[in-house]
Design goal:
387 residues; globular; six-stranded antiparallel beta sheet; mainly beta
Length: 387
């Protein structure tokens, strides 16, 4: 094990001070540097963590330019995310030569432990490159899945087969939080595209036997015909309801509600309890769930970040009042602090224990050479969280 990668670098850390209102559930929020990349002129991106029966598994990819991904790697931790093993390539996920100068690779990979079968199910999408440039950015992308078995071996990637009139050009499950039922079925939030220029979103109910993921039924489709439409949804179950948060391109964030995860009531727009909208720009949001409260993590426009592309720093956290369906303004605090003009992107949230939740993300500079740090934020709860 490399000592450089095995030791968690703590050169840069920040503990959130609750200047507005002390949250009765949150004890502390701390951000630490996992892998330094800005000075090394490299960037390990898409860090996403799964809690396994023993330890934690992270998938991560080298990013060399905007949306230019390389072979997925993995790292493991057996001390609650304090130290991580050396990054290792995941077998059989090398870039594939397609012919004519094109290459293909799995990207936006999200690992999640599947308790019923004891394996880690990884979902992503395939993307295509030519001469180290992303091509066909919104078409011919399909869901790819593969499995990390209990013995540490990996399966070959497979395509999730499912035909739908809204998904004739693309169906993606990258970067999304999904929900696993007690019977082992998996509710997968998806982005889709057909001949229209805008994407749509829905959920796909799938069975999984530890090896094969089979789509059984799709929920109703949500649309917003503004630029690229709706993308990168994430779902959570809280308070007897399913909640979907959705990236969009109208400088707003949106969500939808369902009793069963398939019948979605319709698109709603995030607002704070003071009546002001959440002003964000084509960026993911993700859920941070505690059994007593639901929180939303997001980026938004602020006087300090107007020159940062899509206002993608800092990352905020606020309580989402599920009864009033509003964000509680007084609860908002910085979840991941800003480091100059480096952007936050493609982050992920994982409950790793009854009193700890991890948020992992890349903190990147997009000028040449493309580079960025890999960060881990730990939320410590005052009360047990049995989500």
């Amino acid at each position: 094990m490399s000592s450089r990668n095995a030791l968690l670098i703590t050169r840069r850390s920040a503990v959130s001070l609750f200047a507005r209102r002390r949250d009765s559930l949150i004890e502390s929020i701390e951000t630490r540097l996992l892998w330094e990349g800005k000075q090394a002129r490299t960037c390990w991106f898409h860090p996403k963590v799964a809690r396994m029966r023993r330890g934690l598994l992270m998938t991560v990819q080298l990013l060399t330019d905007s949306d230019v991904m390389h072979q997925p790697h993995y790292s493991e931790s057996f001390d609650g995310g304090k130290t991580w093993s050396e990054r290792r390539p995941i077998p059989a996920l090398e870039r594939t030569v397609l012919g004519g100068g094109y290459e293909d690779v799995a990207s936006d990979v999200v690992p999640e432990y599947h308790a019923r079968t004891g394996v880690v199910l990884c979902l992503g999408q395939d993307v295509h490159y030519k001469d180290e440039k992303l091509i066909r950015p919104s078409e011919d992308r399909w869901i790819r899945y593969f499995v990390r078995k209990a013995d540490g071996s990996w399966t070959l990637p497979q395509k999730l087969e499912f035909k739908h009139p809204e998904a004739t050009m693309m169906m993606s499950a990258g970067c999304g939080q999904r929900w696993t039922f007690a019977n082992g079925d998996v509710l997968v939030p998806v982005s889709m595209m057909t001949e229209r220029p805008d994407h749509s979103v829905s959920t796909l109910l799938c069975s999984f036997d530890g090896e094969r993921l089979v789509a059984k039924r799709m929920g109703n489709v949500l649309k917003l015909a503004v630029k690229r439409g709706l993308m990168e949804p994430s779902v959570v179950f809280h308070g007897g309801l399913f909640w979907m948060t959705i990236r969009s391109e109208d400088e707003r964030g949106h969500f939808a509600v369902s009793r069963d995860g398939l019948d979605w009531q319709g698109l709603e727009t995030y607002q704070f309890d003071d009546g002001q909208p959440l002003v964000t720009s084509t960026t993911q949001q993700h859920w941070v769930a505690h059994r007593e409260k639901l929180y939303l993590s997001y980026t938004r426009r602020d006087e300090s970040n107007l020159k940062v592309m899509r206002w993608r720093t800092p990352t905020y956290l606020a309580e989402f009042d599920t009864k009033r369906r509003v964000l509680v303004r007084a609860s908002e605090r910085v979840l991941v602090p800003r480091d100059g003009d480096a952007m936050h992107g493609n982050f992920h949230v994982t409950n790793i224990g009854p009193r700890e939740t991890l948020v992992t993300l890349g903190d990147i500079l997009v000028d040449k050479p493309f580079r960025g740090d890999t960060l881990i934020t730990t939320i410590r709860w005052r009360r047990d969280n049995h989500v």
